[in-house]
Structures
1.
Amino acid sequence: MSAFSSADPTPSSPDTVGSAPDVVRAVVSGVPDRVSLDGLEATYDARWSEQGTYAFDRTKTRAEVYSIDTPPPTVSGSLHVGHVFSYTHTDVVARFQRMRGREVFYPMGWDDNGLPTERRVQNFYGVRCDPSLPYVEGFEPPQQGSEDGSGKAPKLSDQVPVSRRNFIELCERLTGEDEKQFEALWRRLGLSVDWSHHYQTIDANARTVAQRAFLRNLARDEAYQAEAPGLWDVTFQTAVAQAELEAREYPGHFHKVAFHPSDGGAPVHIETTRPELLPACVALVAHPDDERYQHLFGTTVTSPLFDVEVPVLAHPAAEPTKGAGIAMCCTFGDLTDVQWWRELQLPTRSIIQRDGRISRETPEWLTSERSRALFAEIEGKTTFSARTAVVDALRASGDLAGEPVATQRMANFFEKGDKPLEIVTSRQWYIRNGGRDAALRDELLGRGRELGFHPDFMRVRYENWVGGLNGDWLVSRQRFFGVAIPLWYRVGADGTVEHDDPIVPDEASLPVDPSSDVPPGYSADQRGVPGGFVGEADVMDTWATSSLTPQIAGGWERDPDLFERVFPMDLRPQGQDIIRTWLFSTVVRSHLEFGSLPWANAAISGWILDPDRKKMSKSKGNVVTPMGLLEEHGSDAVRYWAASARLGTDAAFEVGQMKIGRRLAIKVLNASKFALSFGVDPESGTGEITLDPALVTAELDRAMLAGLADVVDRATEAFDAYDHTRALEISETFFWTFCDDYLELVKDRAYGAGAGAADVNAATRSARTALAIALDVLLRLFAPVLPFATEEVWGWWRTGSVHRAPWPTSDVARAASAGADPAVLTAAGHALAALRKVKSEAKVSMRTPILAAELAVPAAARAGVESALVDLRGAGRVTGTLDLVETTEGQGDAAVQGGLVVVRSELGEPEARRKG
RNA sequence: GGGCCUGUAGCUCAGUUGGUUAGAGCGCCACGCUUACACCGUGGAUGUCGGGGGUUCGAGUCCCUCCGGGCCCACCA
């Protein structure tokens, strides 16, 4: 029968305890006279580095490995308190799993792909990326900007154009500096990262992975190109994806505009916030059931000012309650227009250019004299000035009913942009993500159900997003910096580019830059000439690279031996705001390439809120620098604050919590110093401690260890369930009782009251051994959260690093406490509190002797108090009688505290104050 | 409009499947330099568990409803 099977809850006799754990012997040496947290970060960071404490052992098998898909922070941004918070959560898990016996693969990445880096490189070096230029060997940029951007950014016209490859090189040079600072912060915080496994999202490996994954998608028809109307940012002049949208309020005006029925009937009024799109109008649309417009369906009306005849059509997407209930459909004002255009097979009449301005060519569908004249007035203008011009004309012609009414409307914005998105028709690349395909969508929803979300309710965000997709993932971007789409197109004899059958590179040649590299079978002089080729100019969306972080970090195809040991990974830690982007896109890529999840678990951290309960942000000026925080409070303290917040829950930025963490860390040092201070040979300053459960014989000691055994089991269970907060709380609560009550109660006995150091009796040895066993366990319980303090103490009496020590089991404590009742310590603690209260109320020192006392004890607590009576007398300094009188008050554990009171006492003289 | 989270002591938060008198820390008050710790210790005070209904022998916990915070999605006529 198993030693700890649930069928046998009371393994009290030795033969049910199973094989005894190996008895640990430790030699205490090097406990300092005064303990301190100061400087521990630097000391142990260096030692861990030097000793390879966190080095990943790649001989381990997949089952032995715990792999983490670390979020790569954006290097061009700055790290803030929120990063410290969430990265601590991950590190706590990493350290727990490592001690649990898993070989932890914990790499670090840097995200240096994307717009923030592009802008920073531009401004810092005074360059601009122009993919059409050739690579220049040994290029030196015209300037070295200042780190804080105080040097003024050069104007676009002053920026020196450089090739994409040169631009990427400059990016790597610049971000190398950022990375050093970031690494220094992470080391100071104590992240147990293996720094030999790091990556950048723009480096050659990442580009290779991103291009290879794309080519595989293309080969399986999961990537495709399409010419279609899509959301377009006019500032950055690039298409944007659904996941990058942000709906924002945007001021506008309703304009009531008259259309004129071709049969000469009464004018039809529509309401629009975009009157400048009047020349792009292709139809009026109302709901098929709308009584008001039944008579118009099937007829045509003529647009005001521009005199274009358009049909009046019925479509269920029209909402009778919006505006006038009948809408003007333009190509394109919004996504509803696109839907109507597609489903009602309307013509295309685009007038907005990619720069957001009105087309400079008068469209051929404008035929009347006045329409062509008016268009000539607005051509090349921004939508804003064109709107003014059109409204003035409408007012003059009498087609504007009333005056425009101000409104706040919601408009789609690119999350990094500040102008509303337009809809522009362009050729773009897409990756299938279930947005247009119910079967794939269901598969991806299935992956979401397979994934362990922590906390679990975050799964809903995934499901809502996947369920609400309205199109495939647009991955091409009309930017210059980024990972190039690795394709070329043939140029026909007549000079037209043949997009339909792209030329693909060999995987072995990756990464390629089609703007400078030449496709297989062609020579460089065939670029851009009839019969030759052109390179795809677009780059991939940053998520197209970030969605591959497990592949990038894990060595997909580059290091198959590593990859099979770490993939699929165990954990993706990340923020809740990027479930729809990073988390989902990573699931998509893994599902398409491997038919599996990229990881088994996702740990979602919350936000840090400032004291006003607002999300902390730079603009509010309430950002505290992380390094300053670590320097002020110490890393263990800051980690404690972070670890006190549950996953998925927003947490307050609270210095008070850090002070508590610091107090805990110092307490660990001091209590450890005390627990290890016995048995030290006064001559040599060293001593051996044997953690032999058989030496623990006193009932109080056994009760303490029985409680500790429960704590280990509960904390382990919590950690296994990704509930580090609960694990910490359980350990911490026990630890404070351990310090406040147990240490005080056993102090005299542990000192060997009366006996010489060499003449240690069984009771004293019991206390000392129990202290050592408890310390051995407690240090390891706290190690994930307080890596520095626990490592410091570990070094006083143990060999190796506590962070490579096995996670504690309850075995030793159970072996030492078989049959003991944790309530004995509880009762003794309450009895001690009762004695202390007498002195506290008498306002005398705790050293004051109690000459005689009578203690009321509930029946339930009596046995416990009695078994600890000697310790109790010592800790309470009871020199005379201590009588117990049984009370009937209360039942059960909760009543014990209330019932345990001193009913009569006689205090001695307070000890004379010592001088000095 | 759809959805998720959240409301417990002045503050930050626990409160496991409903079960005696709702907890912790900080802060506050009082006392105490006690050979682990003054970066400390001891003791104490503090609550209409957001409001209102309901289920139940019993509700902080379950249900309904309303109110207050936070977030996601949809919303461009």
2.
Amino acid sequence: MTELNKTYDPATVERRWYEFWQDHGYFHADENQPGARFCVVIPPPNVTGSLTMGHVLNNALQDILIRYQRMNGKVTLWMPGTDHAGIATQNVVEKALAKEGLDRHTLGREQFLERVWGWKEKYGSTILLQLRRLGASCDWRRERFTMDPSLSRAVREVFVRLYEKGLIYKGHRIIHWCVRCQSALSDEEAITTEGGENGSLWHIRYPADDGGPGVVVATTRPETMLGDTGVAVHPTDARYATLLGRNVILPLMNRPIPVIPDDAVDPAFGTGAVKVTPAHDANDFDIGQRHRLEPLCIMTTDGRINDNGGAYRGLDRFEARKRIVADLEAQGLLVKTEPYRVPVRRCERCDTIIEPYLSDQWFVRMEPLAKPAIEAIKSGRLRFYPERWVGVYLHWMTNIRDWCISRQLWWGHRIPVWYCDDCPKLTVAREDPTHCAYCGSAKIHQDDDVLDTWFSSWLWPFSTMGWLDETPTLRRFYPTDTLITAADIIFFWVARMVMAGYEFMGECPFRDVFFTSIVRDMQGRKMSKSLGNSPDPLQVIDTYGADALRFTIVSAAPLGEDVRFADDRAEFGRNFANKIWNAARFCMMNMEAVGSRQTAVGSGDRAMLDLPERWILSRLQAVTDEVRASLDAYRFNEAAMTLYRFIWGEFCDWFVELSKLSLYGDDPAAKQRTRSVLLHTLEQILRLLHPFMPFVTEEIWQALPLPPTTDSIMVAPYPVADDALRDPAADAAVTRMIDIVRAIRNIRAELGIAPTTAVTARIAPAAGADGVAVFEPYLKTLARVTSIDVLAASERPPDEPSAVVPDVGEVFVPLRGAVDPAEVRKRLENEFKKVSKDLQSVDAKLGRPDFVAKAPADVVEKERARAAALAERSATLTRHLETLRRGS
RNA sequence: GGUCGCAUAGCUCAGAUGGUUAGAGCGCCUGCCUCACAUGCAGGAGGUCCGUGGUUCGAGUCCACGUGCGACCACCA
């Protein structure tokens, strides 16, 4: 094998193995290969995206699952691709155009789309290239894009089918309108600010038409009064009974509008009278419908007052608000202004305040689609991890509202509807028509709008597999097994995929959904560009390595909880990779003549093995079970930490040290057995760890002096526990031995005896704790003792420093013969004096009220800690000095 | 307003179905460049498991209430 460097250098290793894997076709899933299969589809990142820590966690988990199942021998498909991300991408390209002094309208639709495609070709695969750096073992030969011809065909088919089924319709109603994006949005894209935003509640008098006082209405959006066509009060509200059926005068516009009774009004809120603006509020629209009040639109699509707004025409909506309030005040009609938390919705993409706007849009009737999706989760066909998302999902599903799918954008799937100039009928078609399907007129034109991005994403699990053709891929890999995604797209994507899966494939698109943690900064804030708290994963990979980043984030992300991350946390994973690297170096250095894989460890050899070897093999079986169980239950962090503790805390800290006894000894047979166990355990560890840290495990595995059974660790079988190698007796024995070693080391440290100074030890066994004699060779090495004597049960040397070890007895470390007890005693006495003096002065300091009151809190805390440490040391010294004094 | 989650060492977090002495990493203190590793080794300090009450032989773990954070949903103008 080649010489390994002292520290692991990920940069030189990672690219090499990634290319190796790809060149060997290991990422490719062959649908013709028989056997069990496993499939995951990637949540397609936006083409505009670049890798964030959220992607890192999400895709590391998918890769772990994929690599685990691939090693389990399954035909494994991880389907990659990107989403065209309608609004997001259009925004990016429009911004680029703006820099050239252009906008999409001057370019025109066709040229603009050419520009977007050009942009997509150039930058659209950035994020997928970045995923490769992370080690993602996606089947890149199958890369898909939501606007690929075959996926577009699926979108078109779905639209037509739903239209023919009566589940897609054009509706005239209030929708969420973004005045900046100039488009309708779905309910999910309209984000409510938590707890509302600062605003006011204006109380405005609408005088009666006979000059009477009329009513006072309360509103948070006074500018909409320009479009008021009524005032509503509760039918039983005695205060307004005399006004019902009469008119009041709309101020500023001087229009008479009726006072009408409606149950939707809460008499207890505000004044109990509500201005009704059917064109600019969803509730008011409903009230208007019930009372035949005409909606009066007073705003343009870019948020300015239109011709219906009289004197306010042309003003921006918020400017109009100010002017209207001022004018009302001037006319003495503004009764009251009170500060108020106003519920506001903002555009998910650009944060602009959304305007409820009356318009014609395309909708999907969702209720029929929701039925099987509700049944799926109730019956257990579909499972969520963690389970608590079931409630959120069901609440949304059972209260589902129709989905507004039309967007007034250019980038996306054009709505396949044609209008006829000669008849009122619509032509909805799978292929672009040349004539009206009803009257045959050639004067037809296509709907200008495109579909919501999610209208293609919801088909992702089968559109990527070639649907609507019944492809071999689809037959082999649909439905998929697990979906790993962030919970913030549970409605946007997960819920709708379930509905689409049942509607078009007749089957749930996946069995399990795992919701990942949200990655936050160390203060618990969401990562965002504006806060600058979002580490660049590529930078982290460059500094610490992809394995380090993956392992760090995965081990820190518990099921169902958020995870906090800052780039230097990746030191955790880097140090671990380096630890394994060096354990491997140690193995290599001692493997000059090792046997083949066949002579590695089998259960038949067990009786021949020494205690440490039986122990580590036994522990390896337990760990194998634990890791598998954790992975099968999607407890990724638990699996990672189990491996971390085993590899570092048991294999490296104890087994490697114990193995030196034999490796540096002169029994060739024992040496050979130890080598064999060492190599076997390391090899199994690498396999267990490979899904988490693919690069470093491959690099080491390839260097092992074993004839490989496969060309890569990534296609080697994932370990299965061998019951014959379990050894509870060895487990218990080594645990006791470790306790003895620790006790002796502790005594040495407390007495200040250097680790290089040889001492002797004596053990007084507790009742039932016999057999400590077999530990002798190991204790000699690990605790640096020259001899271990077992004392008679009743013997307790009073003058020898000792420690009680549970399940073992009392361990004594006699000084005579090793060091001069008088010298130790003198040293401890001197230290005791110094400690006492220090303790006194610290105590004095802490006793001064002005210090405690005036010094910074952390300084006081530090002094307190120092006092505690000194007191502790003082007690230890006292104890040992008492023992030593008995000896002289 | 409704639903849900969280609260454990200075910090970030583990602790399935309740069961001996509550763990890890980072940080801190002491001593070490010991022939795999200073990205390391050895030893150590540090916790009224948010509060109150309850169930139980036994509660960090289950129940109720409270407090403090956080998330999601909802047409209160």
